[in-house]
Amino acid sequence: MHFLLGCNHPSFTLPWRTLLPYLVALHLLQPGSAQLRVVAPSLRVTANVGQDVVLRCQLSPCKDAWSSDIRWIQHRTSGFVHHYQNGEDLEQMEEYKGRTELLRDGLSDGNLDLRITAVSTSDSGSYSCAVQDGDGYADAVVDLEVSDPFSQITHPWKVALAVIVTILVGSFVITVFLYRKKAAETTKQKGKDAELERMDAKLGTLAAELERRDAKLDKLASDLVQQTKAVEKLNSQWSKLQSLKLTKSDTIQNNCIGYEKSPQAVNYSPLSNPEKHHEAKRRWYIKSDYPQYPNQRGVGPAHVGTHGTPI
């Protein structure tokens, strides 16, 4: 058998044996009138991170709480989680602004339920529901326990293992990337080195060819110099020969003129005594050409005939 309290609250459906001590205590404390009390149907509320929770309290005996001063207080900080008075919501803690709501639909039945949205582990702790109505004051305590299922499931060693595996995988990926990058750079550098070697070989070939051409040009220049010298020598000899020829011609002409006027030409006529004539003429030429040998026969140029012709 279940007994339903006078207030229409779904959480207050309790067995009558459970309510009997409350009724006896109420009767002993104030036999003549009902004393203001706040009752928490559930002293411990659990939730997961991110869920919405409702902290429930109920006035006993049931009465309209619209005009009451209702305060939900966090024990750890002694701050107002929610403050309601005469139909208005008043100041509250900064971290709970926009996250709490006093369920006013149940105020007429004495329900003081408070909804907290998107709870976190920092919301865990004890909360007091305090009510002041005229000269009466009462409160009740509700414990809220917020748990994180992921933190419960994940053990520290698993987290450490995951971190180590992540670091190892990251190191392996970085190592592979660096190795591939280094291999690509090495291959590229080898290609550049091979290209430079080919260019060096080509330049060496060109240098050898230039050296051969330079040697050939040097030889041609040397030959040209020698030929130039030979030409100059020939020109010099030719000039000397021309000079000698002109001098000889002048000498012969002068000798002829001198001989014709000499006494020998008169004494030895070519008609009366040709041998004497030629001998006298030859001696005249030798004496004229080689004055240093005036008395030597056969000295000087070869025997010449009349007008310098060989005899």
Brief summary of the model shown:
It contains five helices and 13 strands. With 311 residues, it is an alpha+beta fold.
Strand content: 15-25%
The largest pleated sheet is described as: 6 strands, mixed
Number of strands: 13
User: Would you identify the regions where 5 or more consecutive residues have pLDDT less than 50?
Assistant: 1-6, 10-33, 292-311
Please state the CA-atom Rg, rounded to the nearest Å.
Answer: 73 Å
How do the SSEs run, as a string of H and E? EEHEEEEEEEEEEEHHHH
Category by helix and strand content: alpha+beta
The chain-level mean pLDDT equals: 77
Number of H/I helices: 5
Amount of helix:
40-55%
Termini separation comes to 186 Å
Tell me the overall shape.
Answer: rod-shaped
Widest sheet: strand ordering: 4-13-12-7-8-9
Core attributes:
single chain, 311 residues, alpha+beta, six-stranded mixed beta sheet, three-stranded antiparallel beta sheet, rod-shaped, disordered N terminus, disordered C terminus
Can you tell me about this structure?
The protein has a six-stranded mixed β-sheet with strand order 4-13-12-7-8-9. The chain is α+β, with helices and mostly antiparallel strands. It has helices at about 15-30, 150-155, 155-260, 265, 275-290; strands at about 1-5, 15, 35-40, 45-50, 55, 60, 70-75, 80-85, 90, 100, 115, 125-135, 135-145. About 45% of the residues lie in helices and about 20% in strands. Helix 3 (about 155-260) crosses helix 5 (about 275-290).
